[in-house]
Design brief:
4-stranded parallel beta sheet; alpha/beta; 339 residues; single chain; 6-stranded parallel beta sheet; Rossmann fold; 12 helices
Length: 339
């Protein structure tokens, strides 16, 4: 979603942008869209985990890269941008007489750029876009880097009246929202246990993943009648945020975490794991704590629920997509001009 937002803004300002992806046709976008088929990651949830096929996402990436090789002509582009490693990264670097500048974005982590083991030793790029200061400091001595965060659409994400009926959510109780893939690192099950300690609170989890059955079992046991899991389109996400009272995210560390900025833009109090990286995004006004401490987490949730939803933090403005895209434009122009 982040790269699509950047593509949209770059195309709006006069750049010629092509997006290659596996989603449905996008006839109303300012960029050109070329559909590249792949097999969805859900089909690979029970497949073996072997290097470099380390996850269902890697299996999906491999199927996408095979299709990409048939659609991608290096000579057609001045620069290519991806956040997928290793297979898409390898496909974009395939031998050609004219090679575009290779730009990698650390949306999913910086280990391809920093690790010297296994397949990570094959990583190469002409420009590395780091989504947080930690990644930037680790890589700036080795790669041509820029520190550019992710962003939020100012017209879409802003405070608005609650619309719980739209999502079939109860009107009365305080509503705590998690927006997360259902995988171990997101710690959704720990979130269920935490909300179970808050009398009367209703937990909504927007997302899907391999742990969906276990999440349902834990919720049935610990939050009977106080839990809803749903999947919604990107267009519906602002309304979902505005229907909640508190935003909870349990990951110990994220490459960036667009969800935090989206929640901030809608004026939601945020409860998350206290790290310098997250403070860099949300500042000091949010209810950050050691989420591995059940007592500290319970107290943070209670504090957040005592707050009224308000106007967005002024810090949100620095994450608006037009400003982020301008940073991409300057970085890409410098690299392409120097090639």
């Amino acid at each position: 979603m982040a790269l699509l937002a950047v593509a949209r803004e770059l195309a709006r300002t006069g750049n010629v942008v092509t997006v290659m992806g596996s989603g449905p046709p996008r006839p109303d976008t300012p960029y050109a869209f070329k559909q590249v088929p792949s097999l969805r990651r859900e089909r690979f949830e029970r497949f073996p985990r072997i290097p470099p096929l380390r996850s269902d996402v890697a299996w999906e990436d491999a199927t996408f890269a095979l299709s990409l090789l048939r659609s991608y002509r290096p000579e057609d582009f001045d620069a290519v941008v991806t956040c997928s490693f290793p297979f898409t990264h390898w496909a974009l670097r395939r031998p050609a007489r004219s090679k575009p500048a290779q730009i990698f974005v650390t949306q999913n982590g910086d280990w391809p750029a920093t690790s010297e083991s296994a397949e990570y030793r094959t990583f190469r790029c002409d420009g590395l876009i780091c989504t947080n200061p930690d990644f930037f400091e680790r890589s700036r001595a080795r790669w041509n880097c820029a520190l550019i965060p992710n962003g939020v659409s100012p017209g879409a994400f802003s405070p608005a009246p609650s619309d719980r009926a739209r999502f079939g959510l109860p009107e009365g109780p305080p509503l705590i929202l998690m927006v997360s893939a259902l995988i171990d690192s997101k710690r959704v099950i720990e979130g269920i246990h935490a909300v179970a300690r808050v009398p009367g609170a209703h937990l909504v989890v927007a997302g899907d993943g391999a742990l969906r059955n276990r999440v349902s079992e834990e919720a049935n046991q610990h939050l009977p009648g106080r839990f809803t899991r749903l999947t919604v389109s990107a267009a519906e996400m602002p309304a979902l945020y505005n229907s909640a009272d508190v935003f909870l995210h349990m990951s110990l560390l994220e490459s960036f975490g667009n969800v935090f900025v989206e929640a901030m833009a809608c004026g939601l109090p945020i409860v998350g794991h206290d790290t310098p990286r997250l403070r860099w995004i949300v500042g000091d006004r949010e209810q950050l704590c050691d989420t591995e401490s059940p007592d500290a987490l319970h107290q943070a949730l209670e504090r957040a629920l005592s707050l009224e939803k308000g106007s967005p933090d002024d810090r949100v403005a620095r994450f608006y997509w037009p400003q982020i895209a301008e940073q991409y434009h300057r970085f890409l122009s410098g690299i392409v001009g120097g090639c």
